């Protein structure tokens, strides 16, 4: 354990997967006093979900995109009895066990407490943090781990969309408002987006809908089995709000559309941070922040390395990377990495790292940790050796096979007149 000044304090904003990992590493590898602020009443972040919640990136029938063998935190495997792709409820239970094993009783955690302001007081070299309860705290370091899924992104350049939303407010929704397909029986539905949620929701809806159209930028990349009732079309070109007709860049117009579900992702959302905004968020707009700039290794703010943003990259193996980032934060905050080594990488901050190339980044982070004494740390993250690399490759193929299984499940439920369930 490094650092001799036990009076130094660190705030972690968010008790989701990244915040929990940060707490574990900082508690194990430094002498910093750790306080976690969580606006919900429980840990888990996006994985803390109640059925029917229309504000979450989760929905009722959801399982992981990653097999449990590579999704697990270091030294903390999922139980043997869990499915290869655990359900959202099992993931939440797993996070709760992780919290109780490594964090509960060791860090101070403030539930039902939203961070509403965060400002650097340069003359004191401290961060001043304000909460929804009217309290003010000071910290030496801050980890912002409030998640990817804070600000739903909806396109604002589709002709006719705004007018249609006014005429039929519930006919155009973001995927955060989707909970299950029970209300879509017999309806004509367009699902936009070819990411994991778009594919999953389109398949679920196909178990009950009269017709499902999957709108993607490149139809050649939508891989539905021939027996699936889902029809692939191009990106939405325009909407006739009076007729409910949707026109596509590729494919025939669809008349009398009842529902559009926009699985178009999220923007970063850090409204409480009052300092360094022009440098960190140069593309800030009403639709949110697309990427965060000025970061060293996609993680630590180079201009002021007392501030960190773990787990910004998408398409990654989240829990292990959260711990690798957490260990690097611990090294930086305890002074083991010279500030002059922390130059920002603008071109990659917040971008996707797709398998298996993402493993190169995980190995790179591990190399930095080892170069600064990481082998002596009480807690060390997952080592991405050749076995883990192969698991990453195999996991992607396994999920493709699993998606085919889920398509056939949806078809079977459709033939039985039953709504989708896992």
**CATH-level-4 superfamily name of the largest domain:** FAD/NAD(P)-binding domain
Coarse morphology: globular
Mean pLDDT: 92
Portion of residues in beta strands equals 15-25%
For the secondary structure, the number of strands is 19
CATH architecture of the largest domain: 3-Layer(bba) Sandwich
CATH class call of the largest domain: Alpha Beta
| Count, helices | 9
Instruction: Write down the Rg.
Output: 22 Å
Portion in helices = 25-40%
User: Which class do the helix and strand fractions yield?
Assistant: alpha/beta
CATH topology (fold) name of the largest domain: FAD/NAD(P)-binding domain
Cross-sheet strand order for the largest sheet: 3-2-1-7-19
Count of domains: 2
Q: Which blocks of ≥5 consecutive residues have pLDDT under 50? A: none
Distance between the termini: 45 Å
Q: Give the H and E element order.
A: EHEHHEEEEEEHEEHEEEEEEHEEEHHH
Q: What composes the largest sheet?
A: 5 strands, parallel
Characterise this structure.
With about 425 residues, this protein is an alpha/beta fold. The chain has two domains: about 10-150 and about 265-385, 3-Layer(bba) Sandwich (FAD/NAD(P)-binding domain); about 155-265 and about 405-415, FAD/NAD(P)-binding domain (3-Layer(bba) Sandwich), CATH 3.50.50.60. The chain has nine helices and 19 strands. It has helices spanning about 15-30, 70, 90-100, 160-165, 195-205, 275-280, 320-335, 360-370, 385-415; strands at about 10-15, 35, 110, 115-120, 125-130, 135-140, 140-145, 150, 170-175, 190, 210-215, 230-235, 235-240, 245-250, 260, 265, 295, 300, 305-310. A five-stranded parallel sheet has the order 3-2-1-7-19, with helices on one face. The protein has a five-stranded parallel sheet with strand order 9-15-10-11-12. The protein has a three-stranded antiparallel sheet with strand order 4-5-6, with no helix packed on it. Helix 1 (about 15-30) links the parallel strand 1 and strand 2. The two termini are about 45 Å apart.
């Amino acid at each position: 354990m490094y650092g001799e000044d036990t009076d130094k304090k660190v705030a972690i904003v968010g008790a989701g997967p990244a915040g929990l990992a940060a707490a574990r590493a900082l508690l194990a590898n430094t002498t910093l006093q750790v306080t976690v602020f969580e606006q919900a009443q429980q840990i888990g972040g996006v994985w803390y979900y109640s059925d029917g919640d229309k504000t979450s990136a989760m929905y009722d029938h959801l399982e992981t995109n990653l097999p449990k063998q590579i999704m697990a935190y270091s030294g903390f495997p999922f139980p043997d009895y869990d499915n290869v792709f655990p359900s959202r409820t099992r993931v939440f239970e797993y996070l709760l066990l992780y919290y109780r094993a490594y964090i509960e009783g060791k860090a101070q955690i403030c539930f039902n407490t939203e961070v509403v302001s965060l400002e650097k007081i340069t003359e004191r070299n401290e961060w001043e943090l304000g909460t929804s309860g009217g309290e003010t705290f000071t910290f030496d370091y801050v980890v912002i781990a409030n998640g990817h899924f804070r600000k739903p992104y909806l396109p604002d350049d589709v002709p006719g969309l705004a007018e249609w939303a006014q005429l039929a407010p519930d006919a155009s929704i973001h995927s955060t408002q989707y909970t299950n397909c029970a209300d879509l029986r017999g309806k004509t539905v367009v699902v936009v987006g070819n990411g994991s949620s778009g594919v999953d929701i389109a398949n679920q809806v196909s178990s009950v809908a009269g017709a499902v159209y999957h709108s993607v930028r490149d139809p050649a990349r939508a891989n539905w089995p021939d027996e699936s009732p889902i029809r692939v079309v191009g990106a939405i070109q325009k909407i006739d709000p009076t007729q409910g007709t949707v026109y596509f860049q590729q494919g025939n117009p669809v008349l009398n559309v009842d529902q559009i579900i926009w699985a178009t992702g999220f923007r970063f959302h850090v409204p409480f941070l009052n300092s360094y905004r022009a440098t960190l968020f140069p593309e800030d707009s009403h639709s949110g922040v697309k990427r965060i700039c000025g970061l060293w290794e996609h993680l630590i703010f180079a201009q002021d390395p007392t501030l960190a943003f773990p787990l910004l990259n998408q398409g990654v193996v989240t829990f292990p990377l959260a711990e690798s980032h957490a260990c690097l934060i611990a090294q930086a905050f305890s002074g083991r990495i010279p500030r002059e080594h922390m130059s920002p990488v603008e071109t990659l901050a917040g971008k996707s790292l797709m398998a298996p190339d993402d493993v190169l980044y995980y190995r790179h982070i591990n190399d930095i940790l080892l170069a600064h004494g990481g082998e002596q740390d009480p807690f060390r993250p997952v080592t991405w050796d050749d076995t883990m690399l192969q698991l990453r490759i195999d996991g992607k193929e396994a999920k493709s096979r699993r998606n085919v299984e889920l398509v056939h499940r949806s078809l079977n439920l459709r033939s039985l007149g039953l709504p989708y369930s896992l």
